[in-house]
Amino acid sequence: MQFRTSVAAVFASLLGLAVIVSISGAFIGLLSLESVDTRLRTESRTAAESLTEGSAPGRVAGDGIRVLDTAGSPVDGKGTTALRPWEINSLKAGKGVTRSGGTADSGAGVRWVGRVVAAPSGKPLLVLAQADLSAYRDVRTTANRVLGLGSLVVALLVGTATWLAVRGALRPVRRMRLAAARLPVGERLPLPEADDELRSLARATNDMLARRDADTERLSRFTGDAAHELRNPVGSIRAQAEVAVVHPDPELAQETLLQIEQEARRLSELVEGLLALARSDTATPPEGGPVELVAAARLVVDRANTAGTGTRVRLATPLSAVTVWATSAEVATVLDNLVANALRYARVVVRVSVLPTSRGARLLVDDDGPGIAPEHRPHVFERFYRAEADRARDGGGSGLGLALVAEVVRRRGGSTLVGTSPEGGARLEVRLPDRKR
């Protein structure tokens, strides 16, 4: 970065200096030419005064002075000037004319300046003064050479200064990079005292490290919990299969196969829950939209009542529609897991209530089971957490259904609560917004 920035600074300065040199050279040329014209006007004025005082044109001519008539023909007895008619007109108008060659041998050109005066006889004459431009050319060449060399020196100085400045500016970044490379897990970069971009960079880096450590810890905990949960059904299936192999009794084999089938179903549910949670952790949530909560709840309740669990699921909804901001799949996931959890612990009835609020909706799922003790309520929506699984009629779930509910609700800006239902069992409450948060 130091080299690229320095090279860019050198090229930028060279480009800018080249423009300045070009403009300066042209300006110096104009000043030099104006100086030549000033001298020539003085000489032509002196020669014109001699003519008006009665001096002959032949005596006035010489040392760069020529006398012509207004048509451009010499009247001083010397050779032609090779000036073109339009140049003669410019000289009569008081403008300077530059011609190549002329009497100069250097090839730099000749500068002519003229003045029209009246001779004592009344005849108008054109008095010309000329000067060799070799000195003018040398001055301009020298000026361009000096300015060019000065530009190179300035560009090198700019490149060197840029190199040193960038190196000094990047030194704290280099120290921060080395400190980050040696940073142990859980530690953070020290924040610079100056409130500048480096402090903002260090703060952003620390935030990134905090998220990384949190993700690593969550992944480690999730992996350990998943391994622990998977070990139980897998070990049970293996033990039952070994018993069936050792005791090839048809009745015992049938009983063992039923137990293996139950454990396999439990294992399948556990794996599906793990996959759903893994997708919710890593995937970007899909674009949400308005979802009619009453219709979604009615579908889930009807499906639960036709499943033949023996527990009646009742639905209480307002007459008007209630919408929340999510996707249909997310709402179905929340309802399915909440109702399945309530059915697992309920004795006779499960009540599902949809209540509109000013900013969305409340979804209440009540059961008449044993309820949830206060010490367990803060952990109900945690992964793999099961409060006294033996209270459930089927031995308890995997502890992932409510965790998935909490994750879906959190991503949509909602909240989850645990309380006591009017029937004396547990109340699980979900609040979802009606617009994107």
TrEMBL record:
<dbReference type="InterPro" id="IPR003594">
    <property type="entry name" value="HATPase_dom"/>
</dbReference>
<feature type="domain" description="HAMP">
    <location>
        <begin position="167"/>
        <end position="217"/>
    </location>
</feature>
<dbReference type="InterPro" id="IPR003661">
    <property type="entry name" value="HisK_dim/P_dom"/>
</dbReference>
<feature type="transmembrane region" description="Helical">
    <location>
        <begin position="7"/>
        <end position="31"/>
    </location>
</feature>
<keyword id="KW-0472">Membrane</keyword>
<dbReference type="InterPro" id="IPR003660">
    <property type="entry name" value="HAMP_dom"/>
</dbReference>
<keyword id="KW-0902">Two-component regulatory system</keyword>
<keyword id="KW-1133">Transmembrane helix</keyword>
<dbReference type="GO" id="GO:0000155">
    <property type="term" value="F:phosphorelay sensor kinase activity"/>
</dbReference>
<dbReference type="InterPro" id="IPR004358">
    <property type="entry name" value="Sig_transdc_His_kin-like_C"/>
</dbReference>
<keyword id="KW-0812">Transmembrane</keyword>
<dbReference type="Pfam" id="PF02518">
    <property type="entry name" value="HATPase_c"/>
</dbReference>
<keyword id="KW-0418">Kinase</keyword>
<keyword id="KW-0597">Phosphoprotein</keyword>
<keyword id="KW-0808">Transferase</keyword>
<dbReference type="InterPro" id="IPR036097">
    <property type="entry name" value="HisK_dim/P_sf"/>
</dbReference>
<feature type="transmembrane region" description="Helical">
    <location>
        <begin position="146"/>
        <end position="166"/>
    </location>
</feature>
<dbReference type="InterPro" id="IPR036890">
    <property type="entry name" value="HATPase_C_sf"/>
</dbReference>
<dbReference type="InterPro" id="IPR050428">
    <property type="entry name" value="TCS_sensor_his_kinase"/>
</dbReference>
<protein>
    <recommendedName>
        <fullName>histidine kinase</fullName>
        <ecNumber>2.7.13.3</ecNumber>
    </recommendedName>
</protein>
<dbReference type="InterPro" id="IPR005467">
    <property type="entry name" value="His_kinase_dom"/>
</dbReference>
<feature type="domain" description="Histidine kinase">
    <location>
        <begin position="225"/>
        <end position="436"/>
    </location>
</feature>
<dbReference type="GO" id="GO:0005886">
    <property type="term" value="C:plasma membrane"/>
</dbReference>
<dbReference type="Pfam" id="PF00512">
    <property type="entry name" value="HisKA"/>
</dbReference>
